[in-house]
Amino acid sequence: MTDTAYSDPNVTPPLAQAVPLGFQHVLAMFASNVTPSIIVAGAAGLAFGGPEQIYLIQMAMLFAGIATLFQTVGIGPIGARLPIMQGTSFAFVGVLAGIAATMGLSVALTACIIGGVIHFLLGAVIKNIRFLFPPLVTGLVILAIGLYLIPVAIKYAAGGAASFQMEAESFGSLMHWSVALTVIVVSLILKFFTKGALSNAAILIGLLAGYALAYALGMVNFGAVSGASWITPIKPLPYGFEFNLGAVIAVTIVSIVSAIETVGDASATAKAGAGRDATDEEIAGATYADGLGTAVAGVFGGLPNTSFSQNVGIVGMTGIMSRHVVTIGGIILIVCGLMPKIGAVIASMPLPVLGGGVIVMFGMVASAGLNMLSEVQMSRRNMVIIAVSLAFGLGLNLVPTAVQYLPGTLKVLATSAVAPTALMAVVLNLVLPHED
């Protein structure tokens, strides 16, 4: 049962309780928050552990914290003013990695800025377009994202280089897999055989265990850590501003799905912490904060932000609805984001360590999609929508030469996995008649 004393989001527990709870929120999302930046940086060809990659990791922490404050503290209509933790979204990883690899980070980050503005504007109409994205459509898109990312996780675990080029001699070696499996085993043990902070930080602690093993095996290089400064200024448009219509459309499509997911998280938070439904103002405010956080992050080299569902679980588990607890977590992230030393330590993590973590994380993305689809009645109509949407989305991504004669923008969209899955699911759901 929820403690009624803390079911009001405006009530703050004593600091001796609030600060540890804020750390707990950070521990639960920390690994998932920094991982997308590492992957997109690798796809863009940035040096693994280099200053540019370290900067992107810093921005992931900094703007996750800032976006969290947009959500919990709010500015006018912006922000749900609920205990919603923001972080870098996995949903965008596939699209942005593809854009970064083919067109560069300038195009990818420009698309994030414009997509964030469009995402922000959705706050005014989100309640009117929710019918386009029922669990059937949203679950399908999230499942497609997870399935698309799983091969990336396997490549990392086996020791694939950041640019996804495999090193013939060491790729798939027992040393690499022993590190990756250590991360997985430790994470699973802590998640299912412990409770509280240990369980919530299971993946983070698993990464630390894999990191320790990698260090013992001589796989860790701390050269970048010693050379990193303690504090550094942030840079606007670090890669310039370069517009590409296909990239913007692809990011915008994922932004719409992310907005619908945030609506679900806002509703789940209100239900878990206060036993009520989220108001229209809270849902709109959560969407505004999502979009603003994404647009501002993109200006300084950060990737899109979204609400983190695992933190909703902490609210339900503790029964503490206080938004000020999550504000403390946001401030912790901001402090970490302003310290390149912390980014350098994360960037020194060997690929197999990261691979072990993202096998679990990407698998959980796919599982989240399946969980949404479990709410859907598996009629012949809905099964056909699932089959055709996934076949097109994943099929064109796996065989990009099948659409090699499409113009550049359409080819980017067709092979992104997310865009064709979403488009096909929305259209078929609107067109195909419901069965009696």
From TrEMBL:
Show the GO cellular component annotation of the record: plasma membrane
Cite the Pfam families for this sequence: Xan_ur_permease
Q: Which GO terms describe its molecular function?
A: xanthine transmembrane transporter activity
Q: How does it sit in the membrane?
A: Multi-pass membrane protein
Where does the record place a coiled coil?
Answer: none
Q: Where in the cell is it found?
A: Cell membrane
Which UniProt keyword terms apply here?
Answer: Cell membrane, Membrane, Transmembrane, Transmembrane helix, Transport
Name where it mostly resides: membrane
Superkingdom of the source?
Answer: Bacteria
Where, by residue number, does the polypeptide cross the bilayer? 26-48, 55-78, 90-122, 131-154, 174-194, 201-223, 243-263, 325-347, 353-373, 385-406, 412-432
Family of this protein: Belongs to the nucleobase:cation symporter-2 (NCS2) (TC 2.A.40) family.
Query: What is the protein's name according to its record?
Result: Uric acid permease PucK
Q: Which organism is it from?
A: Octadecabacter ascidiaceicola
